[in-house]
Amino acid sequence: MTAGTEAEAAAGAVDIAAADTAARLTGLVRALRGHGLRIGPAETVDAAAVLDVLGFADREQMRAGLAAALLRSDGQRTVFDAAFDLFFPLGVGTPEAARGTRHPEEKPRPGHPDPVRDELRERIAAALAADDRAALAGLAGEAVEAFGRYGTGSAPGSDGWSAHQTLGRLAPETLLARILAALREQDREQDPAPDLSDLVLADEIRRRIQDFRALVAGEARRRVAELRGAERIAERAVTPTADRIDFLAAGRDQLAELRRTVHPLARKLATRLAARRRKAARGQIDLRRTLRRSLSTGGVPLRPAYRLRRPARPELVLLCDVSGSVAGFADFTMLLVQAMSEQFSKVRVFAFVNRTAEVTALLARGDADPARLAARILTDAKVTGYHGNSDYGSALGEFAERHLDAVGPRTSVLILGDARNNHRDPNLAALRRIAGRARRVYWLNPEQPALWPTGDSAALAYAGVVEMHSCRNARRLGELIARLLPV
After folding, report:
1. 262-284+311-484 sits in which CATH class?
2. pTM for the whole thing?
3. What pLDDT does 371 receive?
4. What span, in angstroms and rounded, lies between the C-alpha atoms of 454 and 465?
């Protein structure tokens, strides 16, 4: 090959690498936008400049640079990291250390010893005890190679890699006692009087195990992305940000993360409502005052005068179903409204399962644990009768009979629940009484509209009386509160 040919080939390779980098970056941006992150052309151009300056020599430095260019808040970092690992993976294909880890004929029969698994668990325990991040990353690749493959290959798209299957076989949580014993022994050799308690040490090992689980999940996602495309896996397998997690599908950890977003969201909504209130205070033009002002500008009305209104802050009543999976939705909404209570002249909160009780005082206790709000309401308030199933008809009827004085012409009522009435009487007359007395009544339903006509749901019947809105996540809840509540 001549020198000119070599130069042309090198230039072509650079062009291909640049095109691949641009495709990966635009794919990452599309995936992040699909998860609700607001990333415009300016941020994308900044990210491209970051890649041009930092290059690919230090992957973690590149990750940090792209995060600084593309993200606007810390809460978006988890989604970014998972998507970044798909579009800028640590490697391609099977890692070198994982090759030959397991052959199909070597798979043990159920109930028989598995030397590959036992040997891998020993090395994982040693790496966790030493907190060797590099070794744990390699072991995650070996674990997925050995235990994560599923499918037969006979049907297109049937093959893949499963982090759940891998972790189920390895059970790294069961290594805690072994690692603690090894660390205690090592600690006694170095210092007869260790300064770390067993509780602190156990929490540290649990954190390391959780990090290893995340490495296994990332490795499985990377391999599946190679089979089916990074953008498709980013859409389906990357956990969304906390404000986009469905209330009904959220687990305990996700609900805890949601509760941590209550006060930032409350501040944002309070700012929006205050801005709307200031705008609403400006009424129609005061013609006499405007003409008087225009005398100083030669009769030209450069500074219009307005008749100022003084709108009173509205009252708010929450009527919340705290039963079953709906409790997480009601819990979050009650905490959110309590955090922004200064935007209303009065806030009263009622909870129900099949009986209705006021829980405003329980919610106002600042020393209460937000994670146990729904459980505390079920314990301390009389929200259930002779059975523990939801009965919207009975709950609405009791509210209309005993608590209707909480509703007045300035009151907005928010009803929170999935309207699943266990095939009982929906008591539409009680809801009409509440709607006839209130300024506005809105029903926020955490189920998607396609499910409203199914099973024991009375959603369509209630939607014929009051406005019903689908409210599946915190982002949607914030949008509805900012748009629906009066100023």
Report:
1. alpha beta
2. 0.73
3. 66
4. 19
